Fold:
Amino acid sequence: MKIPLLFFSLISCIACLSQQLIVSPYIQPGNAPTLNREEKVIIWQTDSIPASFIVEYGSSRLYNKSALAKATPLYLGTSQTILYRAILPDLSFNEEYQYRVTINGKPVAEASFATRSTKPSSRFVVFGDCGIGTAVEARIAYQAYIQKPQFVLITGDNVYSRGRVSEYLKNYFPYFNGTGSSPQTGAPLMRSVPFYLAVGNHDVGAADLATYPDGLAFFYYFDLPRNAPAFKRIVTAKGRPAQLDSFKKVAEDRYPNMANYSFDHGNVHIVCIDSNPYVHPFENDFLTWLENDLKNSKAKWKIVAFHHPGFNSSKVHYDNQWMRVLSPVFERSGVDLVLNGHVHNYQRSYPLKFLPKLTNAGNPLIDSTGRVDGKFILDKNFDGKRKTRPDGVVYIVTGAGGAGLYDTAFSNKPRLWAHEPEANWVPFTVKLISDVYSYSLIETSRAQFTFQQFDVEGKLLDQIRIKK
Ligand SMILES: [Fe+2]
Structure:
């Protein structure tokens, strides 16, 4: 991968306009799911006064194109801010672009990014449960940065504790979109590396805008593909009519359509699904889309990401198993790997197949606690080293990205991982590391998929290779 050129000069106070840049410009993937069309969206936020910003951009420092920024008032309950977004359409693939945000011809921010690759490879970093505003988050951000990923994938619970604008300003952007890079402060990742995200429970923890006027910020701050049907049961924004009106004006079609989506990068196809308890993952429209999306993808490697893990051997959140019902769809659609968060540790399963117990109507049965019983088939021959052709889907929990670790005594102690009964749990977990914070790095090539888990010092904790 070509390293995004990180020259960035930021003038946070645009003195002549008495305007403060409260979130520096960063890039987002935009509504470009397939490798037929590429775009990026530049987003930033100022304190109060709408201004005519222009984004100038181009390859080879030519800055020969420009895009007008759209300004949307974002009222936070106590103060007015302005959120800006500029769409850079029709970009070339496999290209490095420079961009600068200007006002009255003066640059206020400048950075670069690489567009998506169409080559048969990829390299990206994955972690979850991260935006909590601690020293660990800074280390995760720094590690992600020095791995030089083409993109970052977050498995949900992006920011704590309720997904509010005020929390992103305090617990998120300073770490992932700061100016300097160090293990103590984080890194300027977001201005050059697109973040894809799944929706976690904490991301939608402030849907009542009457109580939290700055809630549901996921739909403000991100700009992701909108190519999947939203579930019928979605997070419901509540509040006074004027608040709902204002929310919808800022969120536009991103609410609720950004909660489920898929995208391609290089030779991977990734589907992100909202797994919150308010959804029912077995909705017909969604299921049809999911299976078609996965089966129609020509990508060599297929990944599904969502927040709540179906297969988890921790004590914490053990009952949150409802996403197990999609396992047969993943198996018959050629999914290689499933990535989850929610449980704040690292877990890797054997390649497995799971057949859920059915109701009389023939649907998978989710009991009132969230449990799903069924039949497990484990591929214990696969070791990811010499035996690299799995028979089943590998399930990963990568939720050790910042929030307090769960079940820290469980690390490498399989006798502590057992649950009952056998219809609900069998020893499907190969590796469980819960006493250190960690993140994942995935690299794909034509014939090989490499998954690695690192701690926040960069020490390798676990590794598998998949070949096909
Ligand atoms: Fe969670």
About this structure: The two ends are 23 Å apart (CA to CA). The longest helix spans residues 284-296.
